DUF7704 domain-containing protein (Metarhizium robertsii), 156 residues
Amino acid sequence: MASTVAAVPTLYTCFFAYADPLIALYGAYLSFLAPEQAVASMAPQSTYDPATVFLFHQAGGLALAVAVMSALVPRVSEDLAVWKVLQFSLLLSDVGGLSGVYFALERQGRLEPRLWSADDRAVGGLYLFITAVRLAFVLGVGFGGAGEVRRGDKRR
């Protein structure tokens, strides 16, 4: 029998079901409707090139998929393995996002924190926070003790 999510700490449940979809929807908004703002926030020395709109639409599509999966999986599945596979997959996307932040800063010679804008700190900080929450979940941080869910347990 699959492990259930009955013992998932509330922080994870709230984050994955509510905060994560909203963050992803904002990313979709930026990609589809405000790509100039997306470029200006992370690469202020660059300008948006409409010829690259396809990249923004691809990113927007991914952000919409993340929003839908993040909102629905916690509501329709009680299988902890499903949650962990989803969060591990999204963790891979977060690592890609963090590398994007790094290379945007590096390319512009702004790796030193004193050179970061408020947008740099917000975007980078949010990516770090999201990545840390996902990684902690995948590693089982906070699941220990009497409420630990083990493979084969079926709790409701």
Remarks:
- Residues 80-107 form the longest helix (28 residues).
